[in-house]
What we know:
Largest sheet: 6 strands, mixed
Number of helices: 7
Structural class: mainly beta
Mean pLDDT: 85
Shape: globular
Low-confidence stretches: 1-24, 81-89
CATH architecture of the largest domain: Sandwich
Strand content: 35-45%
CATH superfamily of the largest domain: Immunoglobulins
Amino acid sequence: xxxxxxxxxxxxxxxxxxxxxxxxxxxxxxxxxxxxxxxxxxxxxxxxxxxxxxxxxxxxxxxxxxxxxxxxxxxxxxxxxxxxxxxxxxxxxxxxxxxxxxxxxxxxxxxxxxxxxxxxxxxxxxxxxxxxxxxxxxxxxxxxxxxxxxxxxxxxxxxxxxxxxxxxxxxxxxxxxxxxxxxxxxxxxxxxxxxxxxxxxxxxxxxxxxxxxxxxxxxxxxxxxxxxxxxxxxxxxxxxxxxxxxxxxxxxxxxxxxxxxxxxxxxxxxxxxxxxxxxxxxxxxxxxxxxxxxxxxxxxxxxxxxxxxxxxxxxxxxxxxxxxxxxxxxxxxxxxxxxxxxxxxxxxxxxxxxxxxxxxxxxxxxxxxxxxxxxxxxxxxxxxxxxxxxxxxxxxxxxxxxxxxxxxxxxxxxxxxxxxxxxxxxxxxxxxxxxxxxxxxxxxxxxxxxxxxxxxxxxxxxxxxxxxxxxxxx
Length: 474
C-alpha cells in the first residue's frame, strides 16, 4: 500500500546550504534509522521505527510556488535467524511500501542538519529480527539506492511476574496531546523521536519516554522509585545536576517521561539511563540508551593533573573479548612494525598496554582528555556499519567499510548498479590520500548477492588489476 504522508521538519543546526540539489554525481539520500519496542498484548509486542531524512539530501522541484520532493521506501521486518543462503527468499513478518511527501515554501527550510521525521508502527511476536529500509534509485539516476539494516531483539513483556522496561525513546520534544490521529501520539502525549540520537547546538534539551510493566508483582503493591540520569559513555557516575529521582505508585504500565538540559555538556558520547528500585533501594530493572552531544562552544574543563596512567585508564579494565575486537579493528590502520609487536604480545595485560600506546602515539592533542584521532576512527567504524553491514559481516569488515575506515569518505562515488553488460560496481575517487595523491578504488558485486569486493585500486598495497574493466563484464 502506497501512502503519502506529511512529516515534521526538525532543525538540528543552522549552517546554510548554498543551492538545492548541488550534488553532481548520484548519492543516496541521507536517512537515519532508530527503533523501540513496547508491550502490546499477550502474543505480540509493538515496534516503532523512527526515520530522519536529511532535508538537504532530497531532490526538490518547483511546483505551484512550492518546493516538493517525494521519497519511496520499502520497509520490512524479517526473521533474524532465517537467512536464505541462496538469496532467493526472505521470511518477512511485516513489510510495507510507502512514499513520503515533502513540501517546503522556500529554500530557508533546507539547512544542513535539518531533518524530516517519520514514525512507523507494527506489531510482531517477541523474537530476533532484522529491520530493512530500502530507498530505491530514482528513474533519472540522480539518487543512488540506499539500504539500511538493523538487528532488532523484541522482548516478551507478557510474563506478569517479571518487571519490564520498554526501550528508551530519545526525543526532541514531548508534550501533552489529544490528537490521536498524529503518528507521534502515545498515551496522551506527542513524542517526536530523534532518530540520529544527536543533541546539542540548537537542541539544548533531551527528552525521554519509557514504559514500565508488571511493577505490582515485584513491589507487593508498594510504591517504587525511578532513577533517571545521564553519564558519560565511559563512566558509571551521573553528570552533575543531570539526575532525577522520584517515588511513584506501582501501576502497570507506568509511563516515565522527562527531559534534561544538556546545553552545558561538552561534545561527546553519553548514556541516558533509567533504573527502577524498590523501597529498599534494590534494583528491579535497568535500561540505557547511548546518545551524542555536539556543543562546540562548551569547553571541557580539565583537572590540573590530567595525566592518565595505565592503571587509571579505560584500557586496564578491558575484557579479553573487548581487546580481541579492538585488535581486529585497528589492524586496518596498523603498520607492519606495530603488527609484529602485537603478535609478539601474548598476555592480556600486555595487549591492553599495547592498545593504550597505539592510540597515545596517534593523539593529536595529548594534553586533552579526548583523542580526536581515535574518535574519528570509531565514527568511521559506525558509518561503515550503518552503510555496509550485511547478513554475514559488520560494515567495517567489508571491503568498502575497510576503505572508509582507513581513508575516510571518498570525494566522489561513481555508481554503476544497473549497467546492462556489467556486474554492479562502484568506482570511488579520492582527491588526496597521504603518500598516494589522487586514487581510485573499484568495488564489484560479482556474486550477485550484494557483496561488493575490492577488485582494483591505484593505492600501494591494495589489489591492482591492469584489466579490471574486463573483470566487470557479465
